[in-house]
Specification:
The chain is mainly β and about 850 residues long. Helices cover about 5% and strands about 50% of the residues. It is built from 5 helices and 65 strands. Strands 30, 31, 32, 33, 34, 35, 36, 37 and 38 form a 9-stranded mixed β-sheet that branches. β7 and β8 form a beta hairpin. It is elongated, with a radius of gyration of 56 Å.
Length: about 850
């Protein structure tokens, strides 16, 4: 029999039955033969179930858990399982893993810091969470340092006129000032200055009393305001106690300060104080050389010495004035109110004796613009303590004033100030003389003009500031004590006012901001000490120079200078061997000072039988002087005819001022003489010796042309046996060369003096040295030669070659060895064929001077 079978099958996706793959559900039959060879029909009831798939796109932060697995990285992941019908179920995960973000920032801020809308005021670590751009956590961390601003307050005080420096800024007025800076942590630092400016004591600088005293004596200074402290700045010269009593210790100049302190601020009055016996220069000196007087001043000074009128004044009873009461007219029988004698002061103190010294200055009317001159010395112990000097001029002021003249002669202007007397303003200056005497001086004029019934009173610093009047009475009053000076001014005013009213003219209070306190000629240099009261530092001097005493033309030279602000500065000006110069000082675009610079003058003198046909002074700018020389600048040559003598003199300083040549041993010079047989008497004049025949001199018989003379000062002698045998060189004024004609017959000659100087070389010592030989090979030569000599020791030698006028041609130092030495000398090719002189000298040894004959 046929057979049948039926089978129900459930399969996934497909089912293979009898070699056939079925992919869909259904009933399927399969016929074949059974074992009996009959039909066998198999029926398949097939159920085909399908597998399932799923896909999911997921974005997660940091990690994602799926089907129990944690995923931390982006990617595609599958997961297989059975679905509901028992078939494969495949799930696919497209996973994107986004990361959270973190940030950290360190911030330093001042006071506070705003972060993400929150204000933080303290230091700390702060977090802020949000979502980042991919939607994950974003954690920001702030490490915050909060620094605080600082404040400071400085309280300070200064004195009026001072400054206070605060953070680089100078403050001068009272106030509160805040300066914002950065402190050490970079925050604002508000620095506040509370400044108080304290006023200086308000009082006038009224110091009364004499400002000089003798050493060992006392005087008293009085201030109008009490409560200050007296201080001496140089207690080796003077001391002062709390009561203002000054004790003189030794001669010199001190500064006494009166210091008054209020609210911590001190103001000081400074008083120049001199320790000396309080005397002044006599009016008989004339007060000359505010400008050049040419040969007249030299002749005048020479005649003073010739007539024995130098040195201290010898007062006589004939000159003594019996002074009337103050203000009286008619002294010495004078009744003319227009005469100078009627308007001079004649009484200062009862202790003073007045002497009329007018006879000593009558010659001024012939060499100055003065038409009349009067002078009175007021003496104590036979020395002048006060002087009244007056001149009458027409149309202009007297052209010589005390400050200019005294500076020329070594005086120092210590102070220039205004002084009120009877309501008039006078300019007073304090002058320190070279001998240490301290003088107070006032210059003023009383002018008269036709048609005006009054005197015009003027007291100015600069002469060009005076207004010219028809007649001008020019007063120069000076005294050792300021009170004496005021007394003389009051008496002059009283005498003038008794004649007609006195009215003040001009800018009498125009004090100089800058002035020359002193100057000194040292050879070819002029040292100018400038007192500058301003903060400015530059100016210039304009010099109108004359090269020599007989120069006609002048040369204008402008010399800029720089000085320290508000102080004294010494400026050195090279002036060569120039004879004189009028000097104008310009500062702050204004003429501040005028002065006159002069070297000592060359001049001649003789009797009436002598004729000088030529007098010529020439410059010698190429002459080099050593530090041990004091030169008599310029050279002189004369042509003369005489049966007796001719005198050539040279003053060492302008105004016949004395020079201190202590330590100098020798006088050197070269002579010119066209005629033999003449003698040369050399005289050195001292200011302190009155009497021409008492001066020290030395006689050279038959002096030669071109001869270099070196005269030891120990050889100069005085006819006065009471004087020391050796000349004291402390106050030398001139050198006088007296050319004497011993024949008695009239002789015409040309003579001259050149290369003159004092030197500290000790000629007597040099002559005592062993003289050694020196050889010149070859000789004659063309300027190139060898010098051979033997030295007893290793030493430094000084070799000099000079021409026949004494001018130095060559100089060099030689380090000699023991024994034979040889040195090559090459003289300039520009030298002319002539005879020159070579000298060689060392410590303790000298060599014979040798002629060097050069042939070109």
């Amino acid at each position: 029999k046929p057979t049948t079978s039926s089978n129900s099958i459930t399969a996934c996706s497909s089912y293979v039955w009898n070699g056939i793959t079925y992919t869909t559900s259904g009933t399927y039959t399969y016929k074949t033969l059974n074992a009996l060879g009959c039909d066998s029909t198999a029926t398949l009831n097939l159920t085909i179930n399908k597998p399932t798939t799923s896909s999911n796109n997921i974005t997660a932060c940091s990690s994602y858990v799926w089907n129990g697995n944690t995923y931390t990285a982006s990617g595609t992941y599958t997961y297989k399982t059975l679905n509901a019908v028992g078939c494969d179920s495949t799930a696919t995960l497209a996973l994107t893993i986004n990361k959270p973000t973190t940030s950290s920032n360190s911030i330093t801020a001042c006071s506070s810091y705003v972060w993400n809308g929150i204000t933080y005021t303290t230091s700390g670590t702060y977090s802020y969470k949000t979502l980042n751009a991919v939607g994950c956590d974003s954690t920001a961390t702030l490490v915050l340092t909060i620094n605080q601003p600082t404040t400071s307050t400085t309280t300070a005080s200064i004195c009026q006129g001072g400054t206070y420096s605060f953070n680089g800024i100078a403050y001068t007025t009272t106030g509160t000032y805040t300066d914002h800076l950065t402190n050490a942590t970079g925050c604002d630092s508000a620095a506040t200055l509370v400044l108080t400016v304290n006023q200086l004591p308000k009082y006038l600088p009224a110091i009364n009393g004499d400002t000089m005293v003798c050493a060992g004596s006392t005087t008293k200074l009085i201030d109008s305001i009490k409560g200050g402290v007296w201080v001496s700045t140089d207690t080796s010269i003077a001391s002062i106690d709390t009561a203002g009593i000054v004790t003189g210790i030794k001669n010199g100049v001190d500064t006494i300060n009166y210091v008054l302190t209020i609210t911590g601020c001190a103001d000081t009055i400074s008083v120049p104080f001199a320790v000396s016996c309080g005397y002044v220069t006599s009016g008989s000196t004339g007060g000359l050389e505010s400008k050049s007087l040419g040969a007249a001043i030299g002749i005048r000074n020479y005649n003073l010495y010739k007539n024995g009128r130098n040195g201290d004044v010898e007062y006589t009873t004939e000159q003594q004035i019996v002074a009337p009461k103050k203000g009286a007219i008619g002294t010495m029988g004078i009744t003319n109110v227009n005469s100078l004698a009627a308007i001079m002061p004649y009484h200062v103190r009862d202790a003073y004796t007045p002497y009329d010294e007018s006879s000593a200055v009558t010659d001024l009317t012939s060499i100055t613009n003065a038409a009349d001159v009067r002078t009175v010395d007021f003496t104590l112990n036979n020395r002048p303590r006060a002087v009244a000097f007056a001149t009458k001029t027409y149309g202009s002021i007297y052209s010589h004033t005390k400050p200019i003249c005294d500076r020329l002669k070594g005086g120092q202007v210590l102070k220039v100030e205004n002084l009120q007397i009877q309501g008039y303003t006078f300019m007073r200056y304090n002058i320190l003389q070279p001998n240490g005497d301290n003088e107070y001086a006032i210059s003023f004029t009383a002018g008269q003009r036709a048609g005006r019934n009054s005197y015009s009173l003027q007291s100015n610093w600069l002469m060009p500031d005076y207004i010219g009047e028809d007649t001008m009475i020019n007063y120069q009053l000076w005294a050792a004590a300021p009170s004496d000076l005021t007394t003389m001014v009051n008496e002059v005013l009283s005498r003038l006012q008794s004649i007609m009213p006195v009215e003040q003219f001009g800018s009498s209070n125009d004090l100089p901001d800058v002035y020359v306190s002193s100057f000194d000629r040292e050879g070819s240099n002029m040292n100018v000490t400038i007192n500058n009261t301003t903060a400015n530092t530059t100016g210039y001097l304009e010099l109108t120079e004359k090269a020599t005493e007989n120069s006609v033309a002048s040369t204008n030279v402008v010399v800029p200078f720089t000085v320290s602000p508000k102080g004294k500065t010494t400026v050195t000006l090279p002036v060569g061997d120039t004879y004189d110069a009028n000097i104008v000082m310009v500062f702050n675009n204004k003429t501040q000072d005028m002065l006159y610079m002069a070297d000592g003058i060359w001049g001649t003198s003789s009797d009436n039988n002598t004729t000088v046909s030529q007098f010529n002074v020439s410059n010698n700018n190429n002459k080099q002087y050593s530090a041990n020389e004091y030169p008599l600048l310029r050279d002189v040559q004369v042509q003369a005819t005489t049966p007796t003598y001719l005198t050539i003199y040279k003053y060492l300083k302008g105004g016949a001022a004395a020079a201190d040549l202590s330590g100098y041993k020798t006088l050197k010079f070269t002579t010119a003489a066209s005629t033999g047989g003449l003698n040369l008497r050399v005289t050195i004049t001292k200011q302190s010796i009155a009497g021409w025949n008492k001066q020290y001199s030395y006689l050279i018989t038959n002096f030669q042309d071109g001869q270099n003379y070196q005269l030891s000062l120990s050889k100069f002698t005085s006819a006065d046996s009471a004087l020391p045998a050796l000349i004291d060189m402390s106050n030398i004024t001139s050198v006088v060369y007296n050319i004497e004609n011993p024949s008695g017959q009239t002789v015409s000659f040309t003579a001259g003096i050149s290369n003159a100087s004092f030197t500290k070389e000790d000629l007597m010592y040099e002559k005592s040295l062993e003289v050694k030989a020196v050889s010149i090979i070859p000789n004659p030569n063309n300027g190139n030669f060898r010098v051979s000599f033997a030295s007893p020791a290793a030493a430094q030698m000084h070799l000099i070659v000079v021409d026949n006028m004494g001018r130095m041609i060559n100089t060099q130092q030689i380090n000699a060895i023991v024994g034979k030495n040889e040195v090559s000398i090459n003289l300039p090719q520009s030298l002319l064929s002539s005879v020159y002189y070579l000298s060689l000298q060392g410590e303790g040894v000298r060599y014979d001077t040798q002629k060097v004959i050069i042939k070109r």
